[in-house]
Amino acid sequence: MTPRIVLGAVALAALVAAGCGKEEARVGAATGQKEALERAKKGTFGTQVNALENAKGVQAGMDRKAQEAIEKAEQGAK
Question: Can you give the residue range of the structural domain that contains 53?
Answer without folding.
Answer: 32-78
